[in-house]
Amino acid sequence: MNKGVSIALVGASGVVGTKIIQLLETRAFPVDKFLPLGNSTVGSLIEFNNNQYQVESLDNFIPDKGQFIIFSAGSSVAEKYARSFVAAESFVIDLSSNFRYEDDVPLIIPEINGAILKNLTKPSLIANPNCSTAQLLMALKPIHDRAEIKFLNVATYQAVSGTGKAAIEELHNQTYFGDTAEKSTVYPKQIAFNVIPQCDHFLENNFTKEEMKLVWETHKILDPNIQVQPTCVRVPVFNGHSEAVFFKVSKEISREEIIEILENSPGIKVLDDPDKGVYPTPVENASDTEDVYVGRIRSQKLDDESWISMWIVADNVYGKGAALNAVQICEELLSLNLAK
Question: Known catalytic residue: 131?
């Protein structure tokens, strides 16, 4: 077992931050010193491994106190502090989108491209992928290795937890207080009893930024030659993202082969027995779960082209979309003895 390391967590009291703490505990990550950081929450208490820690000021933090520093506080905070913390010889794992598309910043899903970390020779900045991208590529990578994906159409059904505490409260209030609830402030339209075909703001190409994240990150992590056509939708679900995925592959591959491939892939669980109504849903499979769940698997020939369809569900906060992936990156770095 590696000796314990010092780990700082920016945004420790947030929706994702609390799940990172939970994972560090349940996965027995060897922490010698825990340093919760924030600005608006300075002085508040955070519990970790049955001990109480006071949130320290991010502005006054000396970064070389943390060998690993996880940022779970949004792009503006990461932009202000992350690179200076790396310069102070700390590994920084950022969960925001701020650095994902910069050439000098690796965008990592350990099961897919974790080998990139082996090339690091000094403390670095590492980006965590978008929640929807992470669960999508976990399911697609093992299939892509067998039969190259040429074209991908994906529709996401994204829970409000991906937007944060205020969004969770907005859905709760609109659902339980009905007409007396405050009007929408987080989302452009009412989220309760509704679906909103807009995640993030629209870009000049008429896709939203969330949709383009799926394009950019699929290209950077998996394969730049895959054509991606995404639609991202916000749904009145508290936690757990779902995705309907349709993709063309280079050669015919049967449903039975796909199931075998996925069942032998780490981090994937297949729930697919349509006769018995077995398929993944957010309520059943996205509550503090680590795996990516895949069901509704179909394979068909369309005009001599081979197509695969599937349904993917994962916990977007605790699981691969956020907290788990960040903790796994730290585990990989620790296994490589890169922490100074």
Answer: yes
Q: What is the pLDDT of residue 2?
A: 53
Q: Where are the beta strands (DSSP E) in the chain?
A: 5-10, 31-38, 45-48, 51-54, 56-57, 68-71, 91-94, 125-127, 149-158, 227-234, 241-249, 268-270, 292-302, 305-314
Return the HEC string of 122-165: CCCEEECCCHHHHHHHHHHHHHHHHCCEEEEEEEEEECHHHCCH
Output the furthest CA–CA distance in the chain (Å, rounded): 64
| Residue 162 tokens, joined | 């991906």
Q: Which entry of 144, 199, 232, 241 is annotated as an active-site residue? A: 241
pLDDT of residue 238: 98
Domain with CATH 3.30.360.10 in the chain: 132-159+195-314
Catalytically annotated residue among 131, 199, 232, 330: 131
Question: 97 — phi, psi (to 5°)?
Answer: -90, 5
pLDDT in tens, 48-94: 999 999 999 999 999 989 999 999 999 999 999 999 999 999 999 99
Is residue 107's pLDDT more than 80?
yes
Q: What is the CATH number of domain 132-159+195-314?
A: 3.30.360.10
For the stretch 202-230, pLDDT in tens is: 999 999 999 999 999 999 999 999 999 99
DSSP code of 89?
A: T
Q: 5-128+322-335 maps to which CATH number?
A: 3.40.50.720
